[in-house]
Amino acid sequence: MPRFLSGIQPTSSPHIGNYFGAIAQHVEASRRAPRGEAFFFIADLHALNQIHDPALLAKNVRSVAASYLSMGLDVENAIFFRQSDIPEVTELTWLLATCTGMGLLERAHSYKDKTAKGIAPSVGLFTYPVLMAADILIYDADVVPVGKDQVQHIEMTQDMAGHFNARYGAGAALLKKPTWQLSRTPKVPGVDGEKMSSSYGNFIGMFEEGNALKKSVNRIVSDSRAPAEPKNPDELIPFQILELFLDDGERATWRARIEAGGEGAPGYGDMKKEIMARMDALFGPARARYRAFMEDDAAHAELESVLRAGAERARPIARGVLERCKAACGLTRGNA
Ligand code: ADP
Ligand code: TRP
Q1: Mutation choice for ligand 1 from 9, 13, 15, 18, CB with most ligand atoms inside 8 A
Q2: Which of 22, 26, 175, 186 could form a disulfide with 148 if both were Cys (CB 3.0 to 4.6 A apart)?
Q3: Distance between CA atoms of 73 and 157, rounded to whole angstroms?
Q4: What is the full DSSP assignment across 161-197?
Q5: Which ligand is nearest to the CA of 125?
Q6: CA-nearest residue, atom 7 of ligand 1
Q7: 3-state secondary structure labels for all residues of 203-220
Q8: What's the average model confidence in pLDDT over 64-93?
Q9: What is the pLDDT of residues 2-44, one digit of tens each?
Q10: What is the mean pLDDT of residues 94-112?
Q11: Quick check: 321 and 140 in contact, CB under 8 A?
Q12: Which ligand 1 atom is at minimum distance from the Cα of 146?
């Protein structure tokens, strides 16, 4: 059975793009995977490149953990933890950095995209893919489920593992090369039709409800065509968002009615109403638990103990891989 691993950056409270693009599949995998073979972590060290307000970082970490836990992540089966609880990962980052050519990092799209968006071009941002490679390699992960934007980082991880093995492995695979797996929903559109992102202000929060939710949903861009006019559902942002919540049968019915037009065909208002109903159905049952994790001290302590327990399971694996790598580099002690 392959070992799954994925990380999510705590750069905001999760939105439905994060949910459909990542969290939903992680929760599902946490239930399916054999015990101890799925790793999910909150990449708080990566987020330091972007979040410089300590209270906000702590709140985002809590919110990401609360989202996973309230949506039913199986923390017995899966190992759920915080990246910074495993200091070995930063040590492996250094070992990998010494085997990684500048050219490899200079080709990274994400560095260019992020600096273009105004994020400060720090050394940390530039070497972000090396930390990400260490995140993956230190647990001997086989499969990394990610969004499209992360595929290049997995390819770079494969390259870094290859360089390290070639230099120190003497034919053996010291580090296991992972593969990536695209999420089923690699690109959730935001209310403006662009990719939904916390940094574009076009998102619908997972746990928005009532008037706040209504306000967000009403921002979904539509046009002035009447419901009766036949339309291509793929061009309608309200339908692209509604579609995320539908099963195959429901999707076919909605599509046929939009394409046919005529009397009784659904308008944009109907689609938005349905999105709100589906948000309530999907996230409603988890809202109270989410709120408790965010506001209640006892629930917060429970969340912290889940993360700590996850780190206790992850750390021995990380230590084992790091020791194997250090020994191979000649970082040995005494007669070891
Ligand atoms: P953001 O762009 O809001 O800062 P991140 O880049 O931190 O989100 O993404 C966290 C996870 O959610 C990643 O696995 C990413 O691929 C996924 N994700 C983020 N936005 C979307 C989206 N619009 N559609 C699909 N998946 C997304
Ligand atoms: N870079 C990923 C993102 O922005 C988050 C991440 C950090 C990650 N380390 C990882 C994802 C390891 C998968 C595996 O979404």
Answers
A1: 18
A2: 186
A3: 27
A4: HHHHHHHHSTTS-SSPPPEEEE-S----B-TTSSBP-
A5: 2
A6: 9
A7: CCECCCCHHHHHHHHHCC
A8: 98
A9: 999 999 999 999 999 999 999 999 999 999 999 999 999 999 9
A10: 95
A11: yes
A12: 14
CB neighbours of residue 232 within 10 Å: 10
Give distance in angstroms: CA of 296 to centre of ligand 2: 29
Ligand number with the minimum distance to the CA of 197 = 1
Q: How far apart are CA 188 and CA 21, in angstroms?
A: 7
Mean pLDDT of the chain: 95
CA distance 269 to 266: 8
Which residues lie closer than 8 Å to 176 by C-beta, 6 or more apart? Answer: 137, 140, 141, 142, 161
Q: Look up residue 3 and give its DSSP letter.
A: P
Question: Which ligand neighbours the alpha carbon of 144 most closely?
Answer: 2
Instruction: Say if residues 221 and 237 touch (Cβ distance below 8 Å).
Output: yes
pTM across the whole model: 0.94
Q: Which atom of ligand 2 is nearest to the CA of 9?
A: 5
Distance 21 CA to ligand 1 centre (A): 6
**How do beta strands 79-82 and 38-42 pair?**
parallel
Report the percentage of the chain scoring pLDDT > 70: 99
Name residue, tokens 């090369």: 177
One DSSP character per residue, 238-257 reads: HHHHHGGG--HHHHHHHHHH
Kindly tell me if the per-residue pLDDT of 335 is higher than 70: no
pLDDT of 199? 79
Read off the DSSP letter of residue 6: E
Ligand 2, atom 9, lies closest to the CA of 132
